């Protein structure tokens, strides 16, 4: 149990809400920064489960500093583009520094983007950009690299075609992709928030699994013969991304189709290979594998 005060920004969101819940379960005092426009039902739910809610002007460093007073860590789980990842997070970071908070967790929760270069993935470029600012700030930062959210395999990532008994993939069928569920990422992040001495980067993966192994898992669980379908190489995917981006620039959309394609290209890239993880850093964590997830969710494969 911990009686530390942890401030969470983005606690009304999917990942942030789960981080808040785990922190409360661990006995931490949790203060969630919300906006006047945040969903009232979600805010009231956060209060019901025991979080303290601070409605703040997220554009005011001073207001954030006041709300962060006494905290041992500020956790960001904000989601957005330049106005959020760079601008809002800068204000949040500056507020945390002003309040003398010793530690900060930026809203990264992604593939290890230190391995990639600008222009390959718009959303990851923004995070690298924010790091150039974060790394100069007088606060200890810890980034969590969790690969792709595994939960998206059953809905958003076009890889397992449940009704067609197919596994689609780009590039190498044996390339291992790092996946972690949102719940496991939240549990690990809460542990990191309460851990006074963490390094700059931590890497986790609930599973490291190739498209071929995913095919095997699907065949085993469904009792049907799943097949592999290679949609093309990563070079072709790169060309398609350029065309999709020209046709629909979607400058304000967080996840336009071409952004998803950029993530897919990065996921299948050898540079994203997760060789070692920090999965064992905290006792008691049980990691969900792709097989666990599919078994639990039982998506229809008829
Ligand atoms: N690795 C992966 O596969 C993967 C997949 C999805 C997401 N992620 C990452 O996980 C993190 C959290 O994403 P999520 O899906 O949980 O997000 P989400 O559910 O969309 O929640 C976003 C949160 O950000 C807050 N927010 C947005 N703009 C803001 C601003 N200008 N000022 C203050 N608060 C603002 C929202 O507050 P309001 O309620 O006030 O709007 C909300 O609490 C992000 O870093 C995201 O990129 C990773």
3D architecture notes:
The protein is an alpha/beta fold. The chain has a domain at 5-148 and 180-206 and 274-287: 3-Layer(aba) Sandwich (Rossmann fold). The chain has helices at 14-25, 40-48, 61-68, 82-98, 122-134, 182-193, 211-222, 234-247, 257-267, 290-297; strands at residues 5-9, 29-34, 52-55, 73-76, 103-105, 140-141, 143-145, 148-149, 160-161, 166-170, 177-180, 201-203, 207-209, 227-232. The strands form four sheets. Strands 3-2-1-4-5-6 form a six-stranded parallel sheet, sandwiched between helices. A three-stranded mixed sheet has the order 8-11-13. Helix 1 (14-25) links the parallel strand 1 and strand 2 (29-34). The protein binds NADP nicotinamide-adenine-dinucleotide phosphate. Residues 10, 12-16, 34-35, 37-39, 58, 77-80, 84, 88, 107, 109-110, 146, 148-149 line the site of NADP nicotinamide-adenine-dinucleotide phosphate.
SSE topology string: EHEHEHEHEHEEEEEEHEEHEHHH
CA-based gyration radius: 20 Å
Approximate strand percentage = 15-25%
CATH architecture of the domain at 5-148 and 180-206 and 274-287: 3-Layer(aba) Sandwich
Return the CATH topology of the domain at 5-148 and 180-206 and 274-287: Rossmann fold
How can the largest sheet be summarized?
6 strands, parallel
Fourth-level CATH superfamily of the domain at 5-148 and 180-206 and 274-287: NAD(P)-binding Rossmann-like Domain
Bound molecules: NADP nicotinamide-adenine-dinucleotide phosphate
Cα shape: globular
The termini sit apart by 46 Å
Number of strands: 14
Oligomer state equals single chain
Mean pLDDT: 96
Low-confidence stretches: none
Category from helices, strands and their pairing: alpha/beta
The number of helical runs is: 10
Query: Which percent bin holds the helix content?
Result: 25-40%
Strand order, main sheet: write it out.
3-2-1-4-5-6
């Amino acid at each position: 149990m911990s009686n530390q005060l942890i401030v969470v920004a983005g606690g009304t969101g999917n990942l942030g809400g789960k981080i808040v819940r785990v922190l409360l379960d661990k006995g931490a005092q949790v203060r969630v920064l919300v906006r006047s426009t945040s969903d009232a039902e979600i805010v009231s739910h956060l209060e019901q489960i025991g979080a303290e809610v601070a409605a703040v002007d997220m554009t005011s460093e001073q207001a954030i500093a006041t709300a962060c007073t006494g905290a041992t860590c500020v956790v960001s789980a904000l989601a957005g583009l330049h106005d959020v990842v760079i601008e809002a997070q800068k204000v949040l970071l500056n507020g945390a520094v002003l309040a003398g908070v010793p530690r900060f967790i930026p809203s990264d929760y992604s593939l290890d983007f230190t391995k990639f270069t600008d222009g390959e993935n718009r959303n990851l470029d923004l995070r690298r950009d924010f790091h150039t600012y974060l790394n100069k700030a007088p606060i200890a930062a810890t980034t969590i690299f969790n690969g792709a959210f595994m939960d998206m395999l059953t809905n958003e990532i076009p890889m397992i075609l449940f009704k067609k008994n197919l596994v689609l993939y780009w590039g190498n069928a044996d390339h291992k992709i790092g996946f972690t569920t949102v719940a496991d990422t939240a549990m690990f992040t809460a542990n990191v928030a309460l851990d006074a001495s963490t390094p700059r980067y931590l890497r986790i993966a609930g599973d490291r699994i190739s498209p071929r192994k995913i095919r095997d898992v699907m065949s085993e669980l469904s009792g049907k013969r799943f097949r592999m379908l290679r949609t093309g190489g990563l070079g072709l995917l790169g060309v398609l991304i350029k065309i999709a981006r020209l046709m629909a620039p979607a400058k304000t959309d967080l996840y336009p189709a071409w952004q998803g394609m950029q993530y897919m290209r990065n996921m299948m890239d050898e540079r994203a290979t997760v060789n070692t993880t920090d999965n064992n850093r905290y006792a008691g964590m049980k990691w969900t594998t792709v097989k666990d997830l599919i078994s639990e969710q039982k998506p229809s494969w008829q």
